[in-house]
Design goal:
The structure is a homodimer. By secondary structure, chain A is an alpha/beta fold. In chain A, 42% of the residues lie in helices and 18% in strands. Chain A has two domains: 30-251, 2-enoyl-CoA Hydratase, Chain A, domain 1; 269-516, 2-enoyl-CoA Hydratase, Chain A, domain 1 (Alpha-Beta Complex), CATH 3.90.226. At the A-B interface, helix 3, helix 5, helix 6, helix 7 and helix 19 of A face helix 3, helix 5, helix 6, helix 7 and helix 19 of B.
């Protein structure tokens, strides 16, 4: 039913309703960066923020003073990813700016003021994920990062620094780190800053309170005393000190990432037919139907078991990497371009043994490349968990393939519908990928989260799964299916469930899913997405920030904001 | 400056702006309950919900079908408190209803629809605290609870049941437990329900998803299978089974609560002079100045060290109990009656050694009564932590007394301003009350939370504190003061800080404080107040719930809600 087809294009027209770009290009390459300069020298890489004011994500504002928007952060995310795969020799990343007195002035305020609530929230979520990827690269990939702040480091700029392992601030009597969001804009530093201040850097909460309400920020010795930064460095000794620190940090890394692998372009193909948009890659396909506000997300297994190292050595991309990069890209397009889509049906296709074989090969490999592929899968599955749509996994065809790492998609979905077929050909199967291999943001596996407080059930499933595929009837008894129904009822039951879900309030569903998905212990990550983001969501809707007389609305104008004084 | 004075009166007029009662009476007594019947029989108490439809908290709606509002929950909180102190022999509390086919239909929807955002949020916070008190009574006070649900148990009604140790549901083919909030009202079950489902009762998250979107709920065997309830009981065997279960639960309790103590009325006195309202009790005084949107909260120590058991034996109320009950009441009045107040200055008065002596006597006592007093202090301090106002503790007078349990108020405040006086008479002192005696909702002490990740600092302060009072200069060096200033600067610095704080957006401050106050590990309690409440705050502001065509607004009317479909 597809009637037109073209490559994703950043010059696509604006959406007439939201006046946001109708399509967003998440794929990029250092050769096309507009806002960053990436340079690699031995075990140290330098990523220099040089935001091009004239190339914002959408018309209507200029990216002055190294302020950022989605287009800037897409490049940052790309750079971190490429350093992990394409420059395994790099052990330290220095993030700096090409301005003399400004490191980064944070998210662009005019952009926030012009954006819809949905865009603002998704922008914050993406930037939060990117900052977590910096920490992930350090903790799991042997790529530590240093924020080299030779000038004003404000708001989201300081939040970027907080995500690095070390923060260096120039001691010039003027340059400060600051969170002006609350005093100047009546919103929160929403990219993890509040959480990282007290939970990661362990800044005393009363000092954090003073810091977060002092618009001009804190500089020099006091910034160091309060642990807001790790080093304060004179301007005259800046370059040599940063380099020495980078070298020392690089030398301290113990994880090696193995052979370089150049990430090929994904080149997804978009097509539109009436109210249906589709986005197709090699292994992943996303079809959205705006008439019913539902989508289907299909993931296909490879034809044969792959040894990821052997394939990568030929320059080709193993399925384990390719399929998950495609899935990642599809999830981002879903989030940013199809806000009206409430329910996503997740289907998988292929042979169970092939996926399980791929999982085993990936798990067995001791190369740095294979480990990086595993970590990428983990990050993408977390992106899936954090996507504010109702996911219903569906196993209803003979080629359904919720096996191993693809079973994680069913376990991460809000519900799992399984068809009970006469021959018992439909089922699930487990692999090493389900046994603590892919931790969620609570550091539990998805099976552990599903059977929270009942580890015996997890063990029983993994034992049973080791013997082979588990047909629907047995999977249902083991607690893996939400709904198991036979041919007579299945299609109707699923259809009604989807229609009902699509009829519910999207806001209530987002809050409900965020509360049910992340059981058990909390982490910095769940605090950021669960607590901080929820407060920011609320604050963004309040008149005090985004109303006619709100601080965000009036930023940069002579008129002072007018507040409604009621505390909750 | 007080010009008029009268007792709190529930017949006070309505606030002309919000049309909510200008004053709320939080003190009550079983003899005055309108909505509950309390009966004690040996080791089992019965609390029967019999909501009087004609006595809502404010005019404009009827409390039909055992739906509840603030007035109903104030009585429930009172009953739990009195059972702990006045009926120490009671080991099991059975909560039931006097309706034949309805247990409780949840928070009254029309009340929510008529209420301001600020009231809704504070109402939810209070009901959340009351439900946590049920769990606290069981875990710490040897008072277990059983929800005996002989009929429809919907929304907040099921959330009340979830806070009990056991849930019994009648098996009559009709009575179900349900969360209709999301499908019918486009909001969340906001009184801890979502968190308790998956984290406390460990209901599988996909089943929780189905349950929370199924308006009619789940009944009978399936409710038991999904662990939504503990027992399903035939109507014919209802009374005997509930009684047998209550007896068994009572017999299983291991904590005893000691001698009965009848809680005297607090009898606070209110007065108004221009824009200043004051509320005075024996040891606590709250003065709010609506012109500057600031308040002062004063807590005074007793004249002499008290042995709580000896005093209670005479029928008098020890300071350790009285002062904290007064503080609790004052905090509730602040929350519900003075939403415009953004900053609260907390001052203490008395002799350090007296407070420390009271703390030691309370800690040493092995009686159930003393333990209950300690737990009450703990609950009140948590209510303080969870109050969405900026608290600045101030030690600026010779009689300032941030000692022991009163130092907890400074540690719980957002900032602590200390005057550096020439003679070193102003300072702080520690006692057993600061050494893990009063845990916050993260299960850390307030000192541990202040020096999160640095237990050495906690030890150093407790060691130093054991030697005697710590003057301001030394307290500052130890990290206890946020700001220490001398006579020349102190008053100006504090005045400017208060004025600045009072000028900031109340919403941003609420989100900021909620993010900075609760560092470290999360618990069911922090998940409820930090995550669930934040999502609900947001959802309550969205057009899909409270807009002109929102589901909450249109509840009970023929018109169907119209939703804006954008997912975040």
């Amino acid at each position: 039913m597809v009637t037109s087809s073209k490559l994703l294009d950043t010059d696509d027209p604006m959406d007439p309703v939201t006046n946001e770009p109708a399509r967003v290009e998440f794929e990029t390459h250092p050769s096309r960066y507009k806002h960053w300069k990436l340079a690699v020298d031995g075990d140290v890489a330098r990523l220099v923020m040089a935001v091009d004011a004239d190339h914002p994500h959408r018309p209507g504002y200029e990216l002055k003073l190294n302020s950022y928007d989605l287009s800037v952060d897409i490049e940052l995310a790309d750079a971190i990813q490429r350093l992990r795969f394409e420059h395994p020799g790099v052990r330290a990343l220095v993030i700096s700016a090409d301005l003399d007195r400004v490191f980064c002035s944070g998210a662009n305020i005019y952009m926030l003021g012009l954006s819809t609530h949905s865009f603002k929230v998704n922008f914050c979520k993406f930037t939060n994920e990117t900052r977590l990827y910096l920490e992930d690269a350090s903790a799991l990939g042997g790529l530590a990062s240093i924020a080299a702040c030779r000038g004003t480091t404000a708001g989201g700029g300081y939040e970027l620094a907080l995500a690095c392992d070390e923060i260096m601030l120039v001691d010039d009597g003027n340059s400060a780190v600051s969170f002006p969001e609350t005093p100047l804009l009546a919103v929160l530093p929403g990219t993890g800053g509040l959480t990282r201040l007290v939970d990661k850097r362990k800044v005393r909460r009363d000092r954090a309170d003073v810091f977060c309400t002092t618009a001009e920020g804190i500089k020099g010795k006091r910034a160091r005393e309060w642990n807001l930064v790790d080093h304060v460095v004179a301007r005259t000794k800046w370059d040599e000190t940063v380099l020495a620190r980078a070298k020392a940090v690089a030398a301290a890394q113990t994880i090696t990432r193995g052979s370089a692998f150049a990430l090929p372009a994904l080149g997804g193909t978009v097509a539109t037919a009436g109210a249906v948009d589709s986005l197709a890659y090699r292994f992943v396909r996303l079809v959205v139907d705006h008439a019913t506000r539902t989508a289907t997300l299909d993931v296909t297994a490879p034809d044969a078991v792959e040894d990821p190292d052997a394939i990568a050595a030929t320059g080709a991309e193993p399925w384990a990497l390719r399929a998950f990069r495609e899935l990642d890209d599809a999830l981002l397009h879903l989030r940013f371009e199809h806000a009206d889509i409430g329910v996503v049906l997740v289907r998988t296709h292929g042979k169970h043994d092939v996926v399980r074989g791929c999982d085993e090969a990936l798990a067995k490999s001791t190369t740095g490349f294979a480990r990086e592929v595993r970590h990428l899968q983990r990050r993408v599955l977390k992106r899936f968990d954090n996507t504010a749509r109702s996911f219903y996994a569906v196993a209803d065809a003979a080629d359904s393939c919720f096996a191993g790492v693809l079973l994680e998609l069913a376990l991460g979905s809000d519900r799992f519908y399984m068809l009970l077929d006469d021959k018992g050909t439909i089922g699930v199967s487990t692999s090493v990928a389900n046994a603590g291999f892919h931790q969620t943001c609570t550091n539990m596996s998805r099976l552990e989260a599903r059977f929270y407080g009942d580890p015996g059930k997890v063990d029983a499933i993994l034992r049973r799964g080791a013997e082979g595929a588990i047909p629907t009837e047995e999977a249902d008894k083991l607690g893996l299916a939400t709904v198991a129904a036979d041919d007579i009822d299945f299609a109707d039951e699923l259809r009604i469930a989807v229609e009902e879900r699509a009829s519910l309030s999207p806001d209530a569903l987002t809050g409900m899913e965020a509360s049910l998905r992340f059981v058990g212990p909390e982490t910095l990550e769940t605090k950021i997405f669960g607590r901080l983001s929820a407060w920011q969501n609320w604050i963004f809707t309040r008149a005090n920030s985004t109303g006619e007389h709100g601080a965000l609305t009036l930023y940069g104008q002579p008129e002072r904001p007018q507040f409604q004084w009621k505390r909750t």
